[in-house]
Amino acid sequence: MLAAHRQPVYIVGGTVRDAVLGRIIHDIDLAVAEGAISLTFELADALAKPAFVLDRERDVGRILLADEELFIDIARFRGSTLESDLLGRDFTINAMALPASGRIISDIIDPHRGLVDLEQGVIRSVYSQSISDDPIRALRACRFVAQFGFSLSDETAAMVIAATSLLPDSASPERIRDELSRLLMTGAPTVGFNLLHESGILTRVLPNLAALDGIAQSPPHHEDVLHHTWRVLGYLEAIEQLVGGAEPTNEWGRAVKALILPYQDALSNHLMSTVDGGMSGRLLLMWGGLFHDVGKRQTQTTDDDGRIRFFGHDEVGADMAARIVSSLSFSNEAKRRVRTIVT
Question: How many CB atoms are closer than 10 A to CB 276?
Answer without folding.
Answer: 10
